[in-house]
């Protein structure tokens, strides 16, 4: 039974060794039919039994590696690889049944294929037990159990897919809301930047206007101070001809006062 999914190098190597043993068993049983000597048949059958023991060990190793890689492959890939393992067990069981047939015909005692197996083996390897050691009811129960486990695994996978879709939808919605919020923030920043530029221009204009007003006020102040200084100088020193009279503020002519004072009886 070929798998549609690629196997890891370790699983591929184990599978190759198992297939080699199956080919050797097939060739061995075909050769056994041609042997007429009973003792030689017994020796050949014992060699084939050793190959079956090795095949069971490799199937257990295949199952161990498959469990270790369960989280590294998809559910479908793991299911197909598990079906491949069950097919190998079934094929080995057919050779075990064939061995029993030859063994019974030779009148030999039944040789246990897995004499080393005991109750101390891990429960995880129970599903690799050969059909020769199980009743029909046990085989049916084991098959049903595997089907139930497969259905449960499929349901869990469906739940994970549904949860993943929900999380993806929620994440997409959150990203859309955050994108819109970022757009609004950018627009507000542009508005604030424009307002700051306008405010800066207004402050500069106000500053220039204030500077102009200060210059005008300073000029007026200097003019007033100059006028006051001229008035003070004219009052203190009215005979000073170097200072021109300010229109409207010139003092009365002094000659008239001198004429009146020097000639009081001029009218008589």
Q: Main sheet? A: none
What is the quaternary state of this protein?
single chain
* Rg (C-alpha, Å): 59 Å
Determine the N-to-C terminus distance.
166 Å
Order of helices and strands: HHHHH
Question: Mean of the pLDDT scores?
Answer: 76
Uncertain parts:
108-130, 255-263
Output the number of helix runs.
5
Query: How much β-strand is present in the residues?
Result: under 5%
The gross shape turns out to be: rod-shaped
Percent range for helical residues? Answer: over 70%
Label the structural class.
mainly alpha
Number of strands: 0
Quick recap:
The chain has helices at residues 9-34, 38-68, 75-106, 136-236, 255-262.
Key traits:
5 helices, 268 residues
Could you explain the architecture of this structure?
The radius of gyration is 59 Å and the shape is rod-shaped. It starts with 8 loop residues before the first helix and ends in a 6-residue tail after the last helix. It has helices at 9-34, 38-68, 75-106, 136-236, 255-262. It has 5 helices and no strands. Helix content is 74%, strand content 0%. It is an all-alpha fold.
SSE blueprint:
Layout: H1 9-34, H2 38-68, H3 75-106, H4 136-236, H5 255-262
